[in-house]
Specification:
The protein is an alpha/beta fold and 349 residues long. The chain has helices at 13-22, 28-38, 53-62, 134-152, 171-182, 202-210, 226-232, 241-255, 273-285, 309-321, and strands spanning 6-7, 63-64, 69-75, 81-86, 92-99, 104-107, 111-112, 130-131, 158-161, 194-198, 216-220, 259-264, 290-294, 326-329.
Length: 349
């Protein structure tokens, strides 16, 4: 029985060196292959044009090189571009390019579907099929960066893990993808330009601290007391607000990295002055430097609505009056279901 070929991108540089030694190939070929894999983004061995035909044939005999491909692209009136990517085994996953004057941000997914059933998020109504491998997450960034260069003639400036899935439940692949993205022999982006957003897995937030990661962390809070948070985010059962505050403080003590709170406003649910007070209390217990107040984007499956404009303004004013550094994030890409919480492959169920 023929064993399945190993994905060459899952080999370390040392593994590839050992392999080349074994087949009696020149040492400088190792660097060439590594460059094709991580800097020139070759999606086949045939594309590695400075290698001999024989070597390319040998590589493709011994290894596989699965890669993400763009399956469909949608362009929003506001410049946002949503891509549906296809994995080598036929799954679909989405990523978004969010351009502003000063930034070009890639919003990437870490899982195919999601195992957390947050009530306001379209992805939460899908099953989790599997985790994305680190090289697939890397491909998302590469493909979105290519779009940015093509459409805006600018490289990506920021990456946010706010697409489909819970990044901290795919911990190793997410960290390894960020390592490749920030490595000089990868995309060479500063980890300070990467934000990982979590629905709140306290144990893994502490793990990030122990691993002394260099990227930023965002916590999707969305409700400032346990009862309400439990209602919309079942993960709160096992990761209540107190445990998250402790984990965030631990993370900050270990890394000194920026922490942001994300808070979606839902009409008549978490948008009252009392809710704002509870949010202010939490903000004061954590060295967070920003609260992103997010406009809710209605989805078919959920009953939530967007608050009136004056409610939003009053909420923001109350935060500012209490010296909370808050920013209202207007949604982008709503017309193509690319906005926060809308990624669910509408036409791919």
């Amino acid at each position: 029985m023929k064993t399945e070929k190993k994905n060459i991108r899952h080999l370390s540089l040392a593994d590839i060196e050992a392999y080349f030694e074994q087949i009696d190939e020149k040492k400088f070929r190792v660097k060439q292959v590594w460059e094709w894999l991580w800097q020139k983004h070759a999606h086949s061995f045939d594309a590695m044009t400075n290698l001999s035909k024989e070597l390319r044939a040998k590589l493709s005999e011994d290894f596989s090189l699965p890669a993400l491909t763009v399956d469909a692209t949608q362009y929003s009136a506001d410049g946002t571009i949503k891509s549906r990517f296809k994995t080598f085994d036929g799954h679909l996953v989405e990523g978004v390019l969010i351009p502003t004057e000063e930034r070009k941000t890639a919003c990437v997914s870490s899982q195919i579907g999601c195992s957390l059933t947050c009530k306001f998020c379209a992805t939460g109504y899908m099953d989790r099929k599997r985790n994305l491998d680190f090289d697939e997450i890397y491909d998302e960034v590469v493909l979105i960066n290519q779009q940015s260069e093509r459409v805006h003639e600018k490289k990506l400036t920021n990456i946010v893990f706010m697409g489909m899935g819970e990044p901290l439940l795919n911990y190793n692949n997410v960290l390894k993808a960020i390592e490749r993205i920030s490595s000089p022999d990868g995309l060479g982006m500063s980890p300070r330009r990467v934000t990982v957003s979590t629905a709140g897995v306290a144990k893994m937030i502490r793990q990030l601290g122990d691993d002394k990661v260099k990227f930023k962390l965002a916590l999707s809070l969305h409700a400032a007391n346990d009862q309400k948070r439990h209602e919309i985010m079942p993960i709160n059962d096992t990761n209540n607000i107190k445990s998250l505050i402790e984990a965030l403080n631990y993370f900050y003590k270990q890394t000194g990295n920026e922490i942001t709170f994300e808070y979606i406003l839902f009409k008549d649910f978490n948008d009252s002055p009392k809710d704002a007070d509870e949010l202010i209390k939490i903000y004061r217990q954590v060295p967070a430097d920003l609260v992103n107040i997010i406009e809710y984007n209605p989805i078919d499956a959920a009953k939530f609505q967007k608050p009136e404009e004056e409610t939003v303004e009053a909420f923001m004013k109350q935060l500012e009056k209490n010296r909370v550094n808050a920013r209202l994030r207007r949604s982008r890409g709503k017309d193509i279901d690319a906005a926060c919480g809308q990624l669910a492959n509408k036409d791919s169920h």
